[in-house]
Amino acid sequence: KQWYQRRVAITAGNLPFDSLYALPVPKPTGGVLIFAANSLLYLNQSIPPFGVMLNSLAPQTTDFPLQKQGDYMLTLDDSQAVMMENERVLISLKSGDIYLITLLSDGMRSIKKFSWLKAATSVLTSCLCMAAGNYIFLGSRFGNSILLYYQEKSSVAANFLEEQTNKRARVRINRTFSCFSDILYKLQKSLVYHW
Length: 195
Prior knowledge:
Helix content: 10-25%
Oligomer: single chain
Distance between the termini: 106 Å
Strand content: 35-45%
Shape: globular
Structural class: alpha+beta
């Protein structure tokens, strides 16, 4: 027989009894997200824990100090989550709603708030995973599975603004060039005229 030695990474008490699953948060933030049916918690051994209640049933499921953040009436039963880049989590609920959760931290890597953004409504997912090149796979047992392309609105807007700026710069350069050529033409005429 082989005996395996296991290390305890994080210990925490008073976790919700309706906890469903854990999702590791990559470095530099580190830690783990605990998804419970009525709450969402962030734990890290080196900094204070943080948790939010997602509905009015959350205080009845734990003695963990939960904060009220927004007027959410969500439940994470049958949800699927995947960690994205830059401390972001994509979560698909049993209703088909897809949320982008951003972990907002202070300068000391301590999570102080979760920012929730409803991104879309899609199929009821049974699995969710990130694929290469900003693609997200939503697997479903009840309908067609979907491969989505993820791009932030801010980057779409930034690309549009960059294109517009480049067009304006080209127009300015063309106008400057045409003004400069007009000046050269007039200068040449005046030089020829004076000779």
